[in-house]
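Practice problem: predict the structure.
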Amino acid sequence: MQFNKAEFAAAYGSFSQIPACSRMEIAFAGRSNVGKSTLINKIFNRKNLARVSAVPGKTATINFYQLEHVYFVDLPGYGYAKVAKSEKERWAGLIEGYLNSERDIRLVFLLIDMRHAPSADDLHMIDYLVEAELPFVVILTKADKLKKMARQARMEAFAQEIPYFSELTVIPFSSQTFEGVEQVRQIITELAEEGD
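Answer:
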């Protein structure tokens, strides 16, 4: 796949606006400020394909990007405290509406900040994906921000903190060193080829 050929397709503020599914979809989920936009830009080798916001909780829409016969779906970040309850409920409706739908979701990339224990929202999302039998890969963002010993300690802690950890595909990712980018591209390429 020529990753740098990805394009922004559309943004939707409510689930009812999203047109019927017409191709396979790969989704990105994670709490606000975990680095979803940064990851998307690195995968597709584009600076501003997904707009990186300095203000957490800014992505309040479901954003669709397209490449060949695949849609990449950036879900709103969850768990940002400084947002009105009604806005949080709208986001939850967007995320759950999307994940509960009959869409052709081949994979969810679930992003968790490597520096911290998973939040209650992260664990809720993992439980949800397991229950719904949606395949997912955990991406541990901001990996470069930890020194070797701290990183090792976090990985050992994750094994206890994240359910089914030993059975999951877990990819440490860094936007600085590009660690994990090729692994993510490889997974996407394999899924795209299966869908041909």
